[in-house]
């Protein structure tokens, strides 16, 4: 390719063929050796990585650095622009809780958040935790958060300094500012306080990174003395733990991607045993919040595909006592709910757009908070407090910076608390945001959100970054994104394809893009590219496709299915070796993922279907566009060897001279770099690649 001239020879991975036979079907994998046999240890200590694997990854890093060397100045410009749009000394609006209000802030130049509180109605901040000070000189550091105790005397805080998402919890005495001797290791990152603040509940991760046990830690004791409260023996389920607003209950939530189960115990009884709410039933999900003497439960039980809300007594919350309070309405997807002393609220999506509904618990009167733009995002932030009339929510669109509001549920008064500042300036009137519909292969209209400058020519000449995800029911919001303005201001159209596999158009939109319907996700994305080219928003050779994680699998699939539709592809931590991973039940996410993708161990049909699209298994001798793959060495979600193997096979099999680049972050995991500005450097690298391959910037 002319934009990658004078490249040295690309690294060539050794081949050590390994065969695997399932359901009478034989597969050969030349690059299975790239998976370290001691991968669990590598996540904890990257230094123990096999020398041959490290040498290959470092050779790939050197190759991509050479290929992208001419963009170094551009990367710095992009980084500077994106950093210039961030208010460096930003602070959240503190959220009230009893005598205090709690918030987070950043200092100028700081990478990590600071946690603070103020006296209610006061202004003087009390610093609780300084993320930059705790990070020190560590190469990687990520805070999992900070949770204050019900008596406001202590703080649970956690951190990961490997990128492997094994979090260490510590307890801080707020008055002295000193950490207690309590240290709890290998946790999921958070803790739920007991009512008396004399201990907390947490999930322990096993050696395969599965949260399968809940323990109670008593303040002042060693971790080996912690009481096991609950253990989940089915490796297909994750376990989480949390508390209620009234501090009455501890909730233990067991779930995979389609089934859930709750156990509850009294938060004021350190020896309490958990009690089952409703036994798990395959395909039935439920989520509960305390509302005084009742639980309000969001569920898809009884065929409520788009969910309904029921209530049940707290002393008898079993399924037999569930009573509908917000009935199921097909096409209106209820996403989440919250409960307060006088009000029940929920966030729903209908016709692709969100709105917040508020119901007075006494009068049953309802009203909605809605907005008028073609595409926008709403976030429901709620409150620490139960006995309050005020909730907090956020609003943004692709042209409108994020706004935070306090909303009085009784008076309906809306108070703007904060508008996201863009220090370098932002003129919403200079941009256009639109939502168009791209007809897919079966005629289904696929929503595509667009952002571009008003002066961008719509004659097919504009480059386009087309983003997609489409798995787990996740919806990509049409929210404000300061980073993408660096592309849009250079003439790009920024597009989000809301493909099947998300819940953008209801729960059926998810079902139609999962398991044995997964192919719809890929065809929807290709249809979005077809539409944008046909309508002269862009042209195929000007489209840069981008996706990460399961969206990276989408990138690998469309690269195989329609390489001529894309000028380049960016696949971040891409889940591309789907069949091998779903056949390996020792990996952290495999058993809980079977409802999403299918179980190829148990089912030949699932095996053959996954094999039909798994990107690694479907690389063929054809021309591919330039591809950038990004990996994290300590990533427990999409292991580094998936993109490494994919790149090796692409190089070996493909025709044409378009380069395939692999960048492995040797000191980070799935989320990439941990600091807010370090992360911008990675985005600047990806955007520089997009600008380089479309020749949209001076290099």
From TrEMBL:
The Gene Ontology biological process terms listed for this entry are: proteolysis
Positions of the UniProt region annotated as Disordered: 1-21
Q: Which domain of life is it from?
A: Bacteria
Which residues does the UniProt record annotate as the domain Peptidase S9 prolyl oligopeptidase catalytic?
Answer: 480-695
Key words, A-Z: Hydrolase, Protease, Serine protease
Q: Which family does it belong to?
A: Belongs to the peptidase S9A family.
The protein, known as: S9 family peptidase
Provenance organism:
Hoeflea prorocentri
Source taxonomy lineage? Bacteria, Pseudomonadati, Pseudomonadota, Alphaproteobacteria, Hyphomicrobiales
């Amino acid at each position: 390719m002319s934009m990658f001239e004078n490249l040295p020879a690309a690294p060539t991975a050794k081949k050590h063929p390994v065969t695997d036979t399932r359901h009478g079907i034989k597969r050969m994998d030349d690059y299975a050796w790239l998976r370290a046999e001691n991968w669990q240890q590598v996540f904890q200590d990257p230094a123990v990585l096999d020398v041959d694997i490290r040498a290959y990854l470092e050779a790939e890093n050197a190759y991509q650095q050479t290929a992208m060397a001419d963009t170094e100045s551009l990367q710095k410009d992009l980084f500077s622009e994106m950093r210039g749009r961030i208010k460096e000394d930003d602070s959240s609006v503190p959220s009230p809780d009893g005598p205090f209000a709690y918030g987070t802030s950043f200092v100028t130049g700081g990478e990590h958040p600071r946690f603070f509180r103020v006296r209610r109605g006061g202004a003087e901040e009390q610093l609780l935790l300084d993320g930059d000070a705790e990070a020190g000189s560590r190469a990687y550091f990520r805070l999992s958060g900070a949770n204050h105790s019900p008596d406001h005397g202590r703080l649970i805080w956690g951190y990961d300094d490997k990128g492997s998402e094994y979090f260490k919890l510590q307890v801080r005495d707020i008055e002295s500012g000193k950490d207690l001797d309590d240290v709890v290791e290998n946790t999921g990152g958070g803790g739920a306080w007991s009512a008396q603040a004399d201990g907390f509940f947490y999930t322990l991760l096993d050696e395969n990174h599965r949260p399968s046990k809940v323990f109670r830690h008593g303040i002042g004791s060693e971790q080996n003395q912690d009481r096991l409260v609950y253990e989940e023996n089915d490796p297909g389920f994750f376990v989480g733990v949390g508390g209620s607003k009234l501090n009455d209950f501890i909730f233990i939530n067991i779930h995979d991607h389609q089934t859930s189960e709750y156990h509850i115990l009294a938060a004021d009884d350190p020896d309490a045993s958990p009690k089952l709410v409703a036994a798990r039933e395959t395909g039935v999900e439920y989520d509960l919040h305390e509302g005084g003497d009742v639980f309000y439960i969001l569920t898809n039980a009884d065929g409520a595909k788009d969910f309904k809300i029921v209530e049940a007594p707290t002393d008898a919350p079993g399924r037999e006592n569930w009573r509908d309070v917000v009935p199921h309405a097909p096409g209106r997807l209820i996403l989440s709910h919250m409960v307060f002393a006088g009000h029940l609220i929920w966030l729903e999506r209908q016709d692709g757009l969100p709105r917040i509904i508020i119901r007075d618990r006494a009068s049953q009167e309802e009203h909605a908070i809605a907005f008028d733009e073609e595409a926008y995002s709403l976030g429901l932030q709620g409150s620490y407090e139960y006995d309050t009339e005020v909730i907090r929510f956020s609003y943004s669109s692709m042209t409108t910076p994020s706004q935070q509001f306090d909303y009085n549920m009784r008076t309906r008064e809306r108070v703007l608390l904060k508008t996201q500042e863009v220090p370098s300036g932002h003129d919403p009137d200079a941009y256009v945001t639109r939502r168009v519909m791209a007809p897919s292969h079966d005629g289904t209209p696929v929503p595509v959100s667009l952002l571009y400058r008003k002066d961008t020519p719509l004659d097919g000449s504009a480059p386009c970054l087309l983003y997609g995800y489409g798995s787990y029911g996740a919806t990509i919001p049409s929210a404000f994104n300061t980073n993408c303005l660096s592309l849009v201001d250079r003439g790009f159209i920024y597009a989000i394809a809301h493909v099947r596999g998300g819940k953008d158009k209801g729960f059926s939109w998810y079902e139609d893009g999962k398991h044995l319907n997964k192919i719809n996700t890929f065809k929807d994305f290709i249809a979005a590219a077809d539409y944008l080219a046909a309508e002269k928003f862009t042209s195929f050779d000007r489209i840069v496709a981008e996706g990460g994680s399961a969206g990276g699998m989408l990138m690998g699939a469309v690269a195989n299915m329609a390489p001529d539709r894309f000028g380049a592809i960016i696949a971040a931590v891409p889940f591309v070796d789907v069949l091998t991973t779903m056949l390996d039940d020792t990996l952290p996410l495999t058993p809980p993922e079977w409802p999403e993708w299918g179980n190829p161990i148990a089912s030949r049909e699932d095996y053959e279907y996954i094999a039909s699209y798994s990107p690694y298994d479907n690389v063929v001798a054809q021309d591919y566009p330039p591809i950038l793959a990004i990996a994290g060495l300590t990533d427990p979600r999409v292991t580094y060897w998936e993109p490494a193997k994919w790149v090796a096979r692409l190089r070996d099999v493909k025709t044409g001279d378009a380069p395939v680049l692999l960048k492995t972050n040797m000191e980070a995991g799935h989320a990439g770099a941990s600091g807010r500005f370090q992360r911008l450097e990675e985005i600047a690298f990806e955007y520089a690649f997009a600008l380089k391959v479309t020749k949209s910037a001076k290099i």
